[in-house]
Design a protein that fits this description.
Number of strands: 2
Distance between the termini: 26 Å
Largest sheet: 2 strands, parallel
Order of helices and strands: EHEH
Helix content: 10-25%
Structural class: alpha+beta
Number of helices: 2
C-alpha cells in the first residue's frame, strides 16, 4: 500500500480590520515552520488586494496569491 502524503496547513482568516493582526502573526512565524500558512483577508469585492505585498515587507518567508491547480 502506497504511503499517503501528509502536509500540515494553518489557515487564518480576518475581517477587513484584521490586517495588523495578520502581519503580526506572519512576523512571529518561525522560518523553519513545516506547514503551509494560508491567510485570508476579507475585503470588498471591488477592491484589489495587496496582502502578499504587505506581508512580504517585514517577513522572512515569501507570501503570494494562491494559484488554482
Amino acid at each position: 500500500m502506497p504511503m499517503k502524503s501528509v502536509r500540515d496547513i494553518v489557515v487564518v482568516g480576518a475581517s477587513a480590520g484584521g490586517l495588523d493582526g495578520l502581519m503580526a502573526l506572519a512576523r512571529g512565524l518561525p522560518v523553519d515552520l513545516q506547514a503551509a500558512v494560508l491567510m485570508v483577508l476579507h475585503i470588498p469585492a471591488d477592491t484589489r488586494s495587496s496582502l502578499p505585498k504587505l506581508l512580504n515587507r517585514p517577513q522572512r518567508m515569501p507570501a503570494a496569491f494562491a494559484i488554482d491547480g
